[in-house]
Amino acid sequence: MLYCAPNKKYSDFIIVRDPDKCIDCRVCARQCSYEAHVYDESTGKVFSDDTRCVGCHRCEAFCPSGALLIRQNPSEFRDNAVWKPWFIKNIYKQAETGGVLLTGMGNSYPYPVYWDKMLLDASQVTNPSIDPLREPMELKTYLGSKPDALRIDAGSGEVRLAGGFTPQIAINYPILFSAMSYGSINLNVHKGLARAAEEMGILYNTGEGGLHASLYRYGRNTIVQCASGRFGVHSEYLNAGVAVEIKIGQGAKPGIGGHLPGEKIGPEISRTRMIPIGADALSPAPHHDIYSIEDLRQLIYAIKEATDYKKLVFVKIAAVHNSAAIASGMVRAGADVITLDGFRGGTGAAPTMIRDNVGIPIEMALASVDERLRQEGIRNQASLLVAGGIRCSADVVKAIALGADAVYIGTAALISVGCTVCQRCYTGKCPWGIATNDPFLAKRINPEIAHEKLANLIRAWGHEIQEMLGGMGINAIESLRGNREKLRGIGLNESEMNILGIKHAGA
Amino acid sequence: MRRATLKPPEGNGMKRVYQKEDVCIGCRLCEIGCIVEHSPAKDVVKAFRNVSPRPEPRNIVEERGPLSFSVNCRHCDEPACLHACISGAIAKDPLTGIVGQDPEKCVGCWSCIMACPFGVIRKNGAQSKAVKCDLCAGRTIPACVEACPNRALVFEER
Amino acid sequence: MRHVIIGNGVASVGAIEAIRSADRESPVTVISSEPHRVYGRPLISSLLGGRIREEDIYYRPEGFYAANNVTLLTGKTATGINTQARKVRLESGEAVPFDKLLIATGGVPFVPPVEGLDGPDVYFFTTLDDARKLDILAAKLRKIVVLGGGLIGLKAAESLHDRGIHVTVVELADRILSAAFDAEAGGIIARRLAESGISLVLGNTVTKIVRIKKRARRVVLSDGGSVPCEAVVTAIGVVPNKALAEKAGIGVNRGILTDDFMQTNVPGIFAAGDVAEAKDMLWGERRVTPIWPNAYIQGRHAGLSMAGAARPYPGGIPMNSIEFYGIPTVSMGISTPPAEGYEVLARLEPEKNCYRKLVLRNGKLVGAVLVGRIDRSGILSGLIRNGVDVELLKQEMLRDDFGFSDMQPEIRQALLAAY
Ligand SMILES: Cc1cc2nc3c(=O)[nH]c(=O)nc-3n(C[C@H](O)[C@H](O)[C@H](O)COP(=O)(O)OP(=O)(O)OC[C@H]3O[C@@H](n4cnc5c(N)ncnc54)[C@H](O)[C@@H]3O)c2cc1C
Ligand code: SF4
Ligand code: SF4
Question: Distance between CA A63 and CA A416 in Å, rounded?
């Protein structure tokens, strides 16, 4: 093709092939699901087409002779602080297609990341730090509603708790795998998540695509989700895990629903989601039975009834402007756990404009929700889970110090099994075999390896969290929760510090 | 260390290379690993660029739609290739169980290709000799198994 | 336990290796009328054609007999077997006592009733010495007639032709390779041989060898024609070399009759290889199948029985892999259906010298002929051996790149799990 449309021509990446190293083995051509590498029978050589490259680096990783390098395209537009290439290229695309810009993963626009503007404390002289390798260090976390006060029964001579608790879930680490539906990611990834959750004593979340029959055995480590499409929801499903999460919103696309195209609905997904093969799976923007906190309460209690009050009910919302008030209503409506999903939360597919411009940072939402619930004296009635852009163990520690009980990780989990955040999940061609149901690509995730990597990630973060806690002289994660004294801001203005409820470094 | 992991074949106590088709991704790095291992320089670039025509791997990756897997020599207890070989080029090492082939002796009659029920002996077109897996004598783990990025090849006793 | 083996071909080696896998101690004696250590009999054509060196013809290394603690008596012919006294009598007069005896005397060339065939300038082509004789002749002669258009005859013809001799092959059937190949496959090879300069005379035979001054000058054909030549190579086929056994009262039919453990009707006396009439996997009856792999495997089973580690012989299938001037060919099993009840699938690409034919019986593969492309043909022989139901694989099997990925998962996984 001699003429190439501008949106193609100005490719984001260039493929640099070292002719001295390339052995024309075709490994890259086999790996690239976007056909950016092509083998030419007539010459026996492999050629590349930069315009097809999405920058996933699969070929680079697989090239046995190290002949490939994927680089940002150095061909730049004239410097312009306003008309950055991002906008120019998007306009070219839309002028070509007339369609909504789509993307995957989380908001990648350069908004401030408040985790990077908060610093942790450490003990010096006055209170000793603790060495987690020598002394006990508790990361176990209990999720669930806690009573307002403990009643003690000492009547029989023995001291014990009177009345008991509503159900609690004990997790060994304050880290859960966040909701990623079967369909948006494939069964192999789900298997890895479920097995890793089982091994590490944490939970994974089915997402809104139902639960594949082969995964019921991991129920003790499963949160089943119930979203506006109600895909795959039936009484056995609701009872399959330890908790049911009602998904109201998602951080990557607050206010809009979901759409899994019909081509992706194969026999297994169809059976699991309980929809016909090839039918589009449309999740409406709202739950059509929830228009108020009272409606939400009805659904929460309907689920509690259906599960004999044995399962926890989580309610998940996207972090938006008035999250604090909504969260308060959710707690009062009977949610055992509130999940807040920040605007950097990942997704399999979202309109780019929504992803990049709607919602608020999770740090702000978390601080204000925690503060509001405390003020209202109901913080104990629900656990607080946060999600959306947790990238490392320090982010986890900061989130807990800001008031979270535990965090959800999605993108980080996927990265551990190979994702390079190329943001093309919505194409269904994920070259790393994650966000795809194409059987040829899905095999790229070996559940056994995914399990090991995911478990390793949790293990590694666990060690680091213990180190950080020990450094602060704290020996249980419980003691850190909402302990904002342990945080200091750096480069934050007054109102940011006010909302976060922290002092500036030095203060 | 020479095949310390291999036990004598009595009671089938021998490690062999087996495929796992559900996780084979058809990348053929196993074949490349094999070619490199059996090249003089044992360097991936030299193995391909200094040798013409391109050397043949000793395993065979089959692909059909999304299905793919590598077929590897089983170093059979009753090696049909050995029984068929008219030149005496093929022999089974009584100690390691490895069914080896001596290219010097091979006359390219393809009797082994006709006999091997796994279809894992190839023609080395250039030299008119058969090439077969030697289980990477001298290595603890065969090169194909080591090259597999997705554990679709395992080296174990069954 | 004294083990004695008459014959030093591949069946004998199969037996020695099997005996030694189970019994390192008992003495093993091999009686060989040929003065050589064991060699690859099929390689005599490669030797004659100059494609291998003389030292490459040996099937096992020089130290083979010593390493296996075997006494090899070369140049000794067994002339009698006393099944009662359990002794083998040698031509030289000695007697070799045995407890277990294997008769692996192979085949002898079939001698057709042709006038003058017993005179000078007539050669066979089955032994190393035959090849050596022809090797010397090849340097001197210009024209040779090969009698017989089977595998051995054509191999002899090819080798002689490569030595610069004008070769004419005379075959009684209307096509070459009629035993293993059908007309299509034979046709491709015939064309190739003719292109290469070998003359083929089909549907005809030699009735007489005409000599002048005791030297062969020409052969007269049954149609009255004649072909000038300076020597004749007879390669009509081999017949089991069973006379010794027959004389000793051992049960014979076409060959020496054996049971599932390669034992003859005389306990402790076994037979294997070209001389034996043994179980055939496809016919469910005993047959003489004079091919190399069967000889080894039969020898191996005989050896296991002799050493007290008996395992039943599963039965052989005929199979041959031969290349003619760069065209590889494979035939296996029942390559031409002998009767009703068979299904034949075939794909012929004459312009590419390619042919692929499959023979099915009751939904199972029982035979195949491959010409041109023979890669992975062993998968087909595996299907035959394993009696796999291939009803659903018919079209796939016809493809040159047929493989395990074409099979139903259960079949594939079962086949690939074996070793
Ligand atoms: C030219 C040629 C090409 C061939 N090509 C092929 C091929 O490509 N593929 C294939 O599968 N088969 C081929 N064959 C057939 C194959 O060679 C035979 O099947 C195989 O050699 C049989 O082995 P054996 O051990 O049974 O007998 P042999 O190899 O015939 O050995 C028998 C031995 O016993 C000796 N002997 C006989 N009688 C006595 C006695 N009384 N005392 C002492 N010793 C005795 C003989 O001298 C001989 O050495 C070919 C044969 C020939 C001749
Ligand atoms: S080449 Fe084939 S027959 Fe020979 S040992 Fe390997 S798998 Fe068995
Ligand atoms: S390297 Fe592994 S995954 Fe790749 S083709 Fe070979 S067996 Fe399959």
Answer: 20
CB A49 within 8 A of CB A13: no
Distance from CA of B89 to the nearest CA of A (A): 30
Chain B CB contacts of A440 under 8 Å are: 25-26, 65-66
Which residues does chain A have with pLDDT short of 50?
none
DSSP A265-296: --HHHHHHHTS-TT--EEEPSS-TT-SSHHHH
Same fold: C3-107+239-306 with C326-418: no
**b vs e for A493-504, b when ≥16 Cβ sit within 10 Å of the residue's Cβ?**
eeebbebbbbee
C322 contacts: CB under 8 Å, gap ≥ 6: B109, C151, C155, C328, C329
Interface of B with C in 85-114 (CB under 8 A): 86-88, 94, 104-105, 107-114
pTM: 0.91
Q: Which CATH architecture has domain A6-99?
A: 2-Layer Sandwich (3.30)
Query: Is residue B6 lining ligand 3, measured as CB closer than 6 Å?
Result: no
Percent of chain B with pLDDT over 90: 78
Encode pLDDT of C78-126 as tens digits. 999 999 999 999 999 999 999 999 999 999 999 999 999 998 999 999 9
pLDDT tens string A447-477: 999 999 999 999 999 999 999 999 999 999 9
Burial (CB count within 10 angstroms: exposed 0-12, middle 13-18, buried 19+), residue A135? exposed
Instruction: Tell me the β-bridge partners of A204.
Output: A177, A222
Q: What is the DSSP string of B94-157?
A: TTT--EEE-TTT-----HHHHH-TT---EEETTTTEEE---TTTT-SS-HHHHH-TTS-EEEEE
d(CA C181, CA C151): 10
Say which amino acid occupies C283. W
Domain C3-107+239-306: which CATH number of 1.10.1060.10, 2.60.40.150, 3.40.50.300, 3.50.50.60: 3.50.50.60
Q: Which CATH number fits domain A141-149+166-504: 3.40.50.12780, 3.20.20.70, 3.30.565.10, 3.30.365.10?
A: 3.20.20.70
In chain C, what residues touch B60 (CB-CB under 8 Å)? Answer: 376, 403
Residue among B63, B107, B110 whose CB faces C405 most closely: B63
Q: What is the interface pTM, i.e. ipTM, of the complex?
A: 0.95
Contacts with B21 (C-beta within 8 Å, 6 or more apart), sequence order: B67, B68, B69, B152
Task: Give the closest residue to C51 by CA, choosing from C204, C183, C155.
Answer: C155
Task: Name all domains of chain B by residue range, CATH numbers in brackets.
Answer: 15-157 (3.30.70.20)
